[in-house]
Design brief:
It contains eight helices and 26 strands. The chain is of the alpha+beta class and about 450 residues long. It has a domain of about 260 residues: Lipocalin. Strands 19, 20, 21, 22 and 23 form a five-stranded antiparallel β-sheet that branches. A four-stranded antiparallel β-sheet has the order 4-26-25-24, with no helix packed on it. The protein has a four-stranded antiparallel β-sheet with strand order 5-6-8-9. A hairpin with a 2-residue loop joins strand 15 and strand 16. The termini are far apart. The N terminus is likely disordered. It is found in: Secreted.
């Protein structure tokens, strides 16, 4: 009787060698680093096992009387050892945060906090540096012991990052105009009208020029081509013209709906004579200056697009992966990433340079939200109550890092679906695009 063996060769260097038949043996050379999870991706190990199993089947076909109980038992034991890692793999915890990436993220946060401390020393920045130093030591111990909880470390990393972002420079006038942090009430609609394009255009955005000290100007933008794309924005120089849908001018952002600078999704905003929006079919933010006709763009690293993380509380509103908001002297972008497990990420943009200056990571799952808006540096999220009522239920304060899950601020609407909701710091109103209807509300702190 032939003797068949499964050989597991322990090597020092990391290698990936598939199982192969040599003489009368099935040989699989597996690096010892496999067991020091997560040194090698779970899927890779599965492939090794699959190759060995295929060779086993070939041996069985050669001689059906040959039994390989030891070999089969060994494979079974290997699978058992790997089973406990399958949850991490399938739920994206390991894929999104392995040790090397964790180290790089911690280093980036540490250096940012160190620079902030050098520029403006305080007890808060000093305490942050101590915590970050301890976190870096913990990661070093992970390398030695291979014992850690990814979800716990992920939460710790997110909180440290948010605190560092808050320590970074934000203009003093931004804080002074927002002394009352959290909104207390929303009025009944003070404006209600259909958009001027067509009732069938159920997705889009509208509002007022959001830069302080700017002239009064209203705009509306409706998505066509499957409620997904657009290339023009309609401008009104007075509230009276807007309400009468007359004396408007259609500004062309791109030459066609499929141009690389065309608009995708309903997350559009107008700030300082510039339209900010998601660029056509990419995880990028575009800006278009109406006067100069100049365009810029910036990458949103890791942002989910093409309905990966849309607003989806009651019924999914397609093409809402990226939401632009304007507030005081900043433009904000709200989105979600796999790295943050589909939870909302808030980034603050410099509207002139169009670069990301701050990024906070929340624990609010984006698909559990109807819509969001920014007010005085606070992210607010809404959820569906019924066809004619919405409710603000959540807030995240970028200045303090505080998350509030106990809000209950109801407000009216005329239809179920919300395509866009944005706050205007000039008149302190909320503007909502509600299944083709344009509504506005007064807000109170």
């Amino acid at each position: 009787m032939l003797s068949y063996l499964l050989v597991l060769t322990v090597t020092v260097e990391a290698q990936r060698i598939q199982g192969e038949q040599k003489d009368d043996s099935c040989v699989c050379k597996l690096s010892s680093s496999i067991w020091a999870f997560p040194a090698v991706r779970f899927e890779g190990v599965q492939k090794h096992l699959q190759t060995c199993e295929e060779n086993l089947l070939q041996f069985h076909k050669k001689d059906s009387n040959v039994r390989l109980p030891k070999m089969e038992l060994t494979l079974k034991n290997i699978k058992t050892r790997l089973t406990r890692f399958e949850y991490l793999n399938t739920n994206g915890l390991y894929n999104s945060l392995h040790l090397q990436q964790l180290t790089e993220e911690l280093d980036e946060i540490y250096y940012t906090a160190r620079d902030a401390h050098k520029k403006s020393p305080s007890k808060e920045t000093n305490d942050l540096l101590k915590e970050l130093t301890n976190a870096r030591k913990d990661v070093e111990n992970m390398y030695k012991n291979n014992i850690f909880n990814l979800e716990t470390m992920k939460s710790r990393l997110r909180n440290l990052n948010n605190r560092v972002q808050t320590c970074k420079t934000i203009p003093e006038d931004f804080r002074s105009t927002c002394h009352q942090r959290i909104m207390s009430n929303i009025s009944s609609p003070v404006v209600t009208k259909l958009n001027s394009f067509s009732k069938s255009y159920i997705s889009g955005a509208w509002g007022r020029e959001a830069k302080r000290d700017s002239k009064e100007r209203y705009w509306e933008h409706s998505l066509v081509s499957g409620h997904k794309h657009g290339n023009t924005i309609r401008m009104y120089n007075s509230y009276e013209d807007f309400m009468a849908s007359k004396n408007y001018k259609d500004e062309q952002i791109a030459s066609s709906y499929s141009h690389k600078n065309a608009v995708q999704g309903s997350g559009t905003i107008l700030y300082d004579n510039t339209v900010f929006y998601q660029c056509y079919s990419t995880a990028e933010i575009c800006s278009f200056n109406i006067t100069t006709q100049a365009s810029k763009r910036v990458q949103l690293v890791g942002a989910g697009i093409d309905n990966k993380f849309p607003f989806c509380y009651y019924s999914c509103r397609d093409w809402t992966d990226i939401d632009l908001e304007a507030d005081q002297d900043a433009v904000w972008v709200i989105y979600a990433t796999e790295e943050n497990h589909g939870n909302i990420v808030v980034s603050r943009l410099d509207p002139l340079a169009l670069n990301i200056t701050h990024t906070w990571k929340t624990q609010l799952f984006k698909r559990s939200v109807t819509s969001t808006f920014m007010m005085c540096g606070v992210l607010y999220a809404t959820r569906f109550v019924n066809t004619y009522q919405e409710e603000v239920f959540y807030a995240f304060d970028t200045t303090t890092g505080q998350e509030i899950n106990t809000l209950s601020l109801p407000f009216e609407k005329v239809s179920a679906g919300i395509a866009n909701l944005n706050y205007n710091p000039v008149d302190r109103r909320l503007y909502m695009y509600n299944d083709g209807y344009l509504l506005a509300y007064n807000t109170f702190n």
